[in-house]
Fold each of these.
Amino acid sequence: MSPAFSHGFAPGDRVRVKDDWPEARGRCHIRTPHYLRGRHGRVERVLGSFPNPEDLAFGRPAPARPLYHVLFDQPPIWSEGEAGDSLLVEIFEHWLEPAPKPVKEAA
Amino acid sequence: MSAPARPESLALLERLVTALKAKGLVSEEEIAARQASTDRASPEIGARMVARAWLDPAWRKSMVANGAAAAEQMGVSMAGAPPLGILEDTPTLHHLVVCTLCSCYPRAVLGYPPHWYKSFEYRSRAVREPRAVLAEWGTTIAPGVQLRVIDSTADYRWMVLPLRPAGTEGWDEAQLAALVTRDVLVGVALPRVPMAAAAE
Amino acid sequence: MTDAPIPAIHDLGGASRYRCTPVERDEAPPDDFGKRVDALRQILAQKKMMTVDELRRGIESIPEAEYFSLTYYERWLTSITALMVEKGVIAAEEVR
């Protein structure tokens, strides 16, 4: 992943999960589910800062990274489902970027 | 598929434990003590927290703000445990918890995760066809209620705080807690008032 | 995102192979083997000999065929054993 760059997201901020696939580049451990890569969501709340699991998993020094609860519309992800249903997922800040443009609001 | 471990796995475990013991890194007593303390955690803890939240608005507020502190007040040692997040159901929103990447589960207040929570089927389907999964539990979300699936991927563990069911007016904490099963705390089920009790 | 790489084996969200496959509602608690592995993992974590993230990384490193044939706590044991060898806590010969 790219070096830490704090966007300092706040609740309500629109974000995009990076469309990045470290697992295609070699050994890694990541906690961002594949189905959210490249997806737009909205920061629901700031959950605090936690040592980066991507480093912890290899016994490396693990600087704390901000963690957010991010809300996503559920149906667009699978092209099925019930309008209004949503997914709420913990995502580390280094996996998020500001959403380039307003997107359809989740719930 | 909660098949028994294969004989070679049983043997491997004992070789590992023997090697660690030989180096003074673990002891049989430590393992037994840890197993006993793990066995003590059960969904009854989460159920009591919910029942109390239904009865005491101030407690509810503090529990939603800090689930781990609330669990500590219930006598649970949260030292070393991940933070506990509380997901408040509302008349228009129901929560369901899954961990698609492994099996993150609020063990401190629910005990060991059941086999199905760790199953490939639950992990893959709960985020994609959650209403179909709920239907297997006989759980129907009322019209107008949105479903929010929590994929527990990182450092928190999550427990559902469901709505208090109608027909429980005047019930005490123990009566209410009895309605709150493990499945309710994960969100695959809703609290159900037994017909006989509701008729009283 | 149709050209996205194939997810890692443990990254199961939405996996098509389980579509409409009923969740087997097995309520059996862990057996003695599972509880012992579980307790051992907690002790090793408490003693700072491994993290839960290392456990997960080890589980995710299990080759696919084995990943799906092992039971839950067998996967844990496989990972813990590999980690203890990787860290030099024990020698590979001791668990062979």
Amino acid sequence: MAEMRREYILNAVIVAALFAVPLWALMAGEPFIITLATRVALLALAAVGLNIALGLGGMVSFGHALYFGIGGYAAGILAHHAFSGTPVAFGIPGTNQMLVIWAVAMGLSGLVALAVGALSLRTSGIFFIMITLAFAQMGFFFTLSWPAYGGEDGLPIFVRNQFPGVNTMLPWELFLLSFAVLLAALGLFAVLRAARFGAALMAIRQNPDRAAAVGISPFGVKLTAFVISGMLTGLAGAMMADLTRFTSPAMMAWTMSGELIVIILLGGVGRLCGPVVGAAILVGFETLFGGWTEHWQLWLGLVLLGAVLFARGGVIGLLAGREGHG
Amino acid sequence: MDSAVLELAGLRKSFGALKATDDVSLTLRPGEIHALIGPNGAGKTTLMAQISGGLRPDAGVIRFRGQDVTGLSVAQRARLGLGRSFQISSLIPEYSARRNVMLALQAREGHPYRFLWPVRRDRGLTEPARAILDRVGLGPRASVPAGELAHGERRLLEIAMALALEPACFLLDEPMAGMGTEGVGRLIAFLRELKAQAPILLVEHDMDAVFALADRVSVLVYGRIIASGTVAEIRANPEVRRAYLGDEETTA
């Protein structure tokens, strides 16, 4: 019980810090730091998505970059057509409205996750990892050889897409929007985890035979979680494309899938705010060490090694102790 | 006779040349404890797996409450009312004893696709879970993760989860395994009470427990039922005596 209370406090501190740092940067006139914080929020959002599949459901997807990329291309392609005034296909126009783009990004990611999940969730362990990776690589090579949308050069978003009441060109306002969406995703994660669905999903992760023996069919529960997971990561991809004003095959690269797993391992698998901490560490390393050595990932690797060897619950596990399921 | 809760007819299952289940037929009637005994390797576990749905028989029919369930999955059979405990405790290790029982309760109530209301504030789950844990004597240990319970406590939690399903029949796979004499004594008293709620198909190695509890006993040897009858009949059966006492001679 005490450990649970400690995790509540820790979560509050983490979320407050993610808000306070860019607020300080706004006062101090450091827009670059605000953009970094937005990047943390969006990577965290993508990882919250993966955390539903990996953390709660034990499905180690090594292909979540696929959904991240689908979201990114949804934003890029719709914005591209809105900018040029040409239809996407069959007379459907493009759009520069984020709400529409998000809906399309989540819808497409969800559909693809449904197909990938239906095919891959019959396997487990290394086979599951490899099948999810294979699907993501198919997406990667498809975008790479898709000249209509830039191929390997990627696709720029010339004017950031719009959200009602928000000036998305201002770093602070874009941060607030991203932060709000992250909070909503964290809320969704917490609610799902506490509900019957989460109870079934986590039980299946720990002992699928027992879940079946009480009458819970593992496949449907896992597939549902996998689809929700892909949709959230897809949403994060769409928003990330708008942050960087660029979408490219790199969003679907296997290294991106790896980064999302690293974020979760660093922060704490299955922990509510694990993705936020992990994303902050990743972006911190990228920024601090990326400045004076291109081998910053070596240092990140050492930290990851430390986390896996000495802190199985990641940073959250280290600070808040083991997770309780009273 | 015709109102058997569970009925196996002509079940066969082979692994290569090994006939693990060889034309097994048996019934479980309301209100009885039907014990299934047999030496190691007789095929008890294989048979239980076919009844619960983990293994598909090569031939034969399993009828549960009059319905042919031979083609149904483990989860589907559980939802129909087949309550099972595992030979080796199979629990959700990170969940407390209470949440293990709550999982079974929520499964009985319906599908798991409820995304909003938190289970720990769901009185429809927490209250009955408490009552069931009290009933098996695990009340004071309700908050302990299943993975940290003592062996005997885990056996009780297995039973509690089966109870929570309010099944139409219990399938108990060696519930006494590894329990101390005191635990066995208490469990015998408990099962005697339990059979009024739903009949029990009991696989058990502890012969004293079987003879104390069973209304009928079936003896499985090399995948075949060689004898079936009351405790007195089984005790007096020369074939059974040979199977058990002469085990070493025949395998030599």
